[in-house]
Amino acid sequence: MGLDFPQLKVMGTVARVTGIGGISDMPVAASDFAYRKRLDGDYTVALRNANIANIVPDSFRLFAEYMPSFVQTWRELKLRIGKTFIEELSMPRNWALDQRTPFEAVRTLDPVPAHAFNKTALAKLARAYPAFSKARIVNEWAGMMDVTPDAVPVISEVAAVPGFYIASGFSGHGFGIGPGAGQLMADIVMGTTPLVDPKPFHISRLRPNLAKAV
Fold it and tell me: Torsions phi, psi of 155, nearest 5?
């Protein structure tokens, strides 16, 4: 559609550990580790404030927009370059309506978890809570977060394309605010009084040109 929406991906990784007892059921988030008790009795643990940012072609294209945020959060990111750069470099950005799109070629994102991050998280937990010293990792997984330059989502109509709406860039908070975001988007689409003030989430914040009808 020829729309330029600023968004990059950041990968978070967590693990399920077992063999722990005598720990509060309350979830805990410290400066460099976090844990939450699961319904099955095990614990989900993570290295807090530590994510992986793959360097891709858009990293250079959007460099100026993301620089202010990077200056503030660089300690929380591990930059990595690999095959993802080549994959995204070769990914088509324009196609005919009868062509197979990248969205059909890649239906889900299932990144390989960062075992080193999970191992470090468990070691930090063991120092703070000795009950974790004998814990063992039984499962690991990772996920991609869609991040905007200011880490605030866009939930908005796109006036440049009548009838087109976008809700993206939740920056790791989508699971928590998803229900409210869905209600807000429904209000915007239906033209009813919005649940909350939609102005902070309007696309004009990042792309003023897309907020104007063509």
Answer: -130, 95
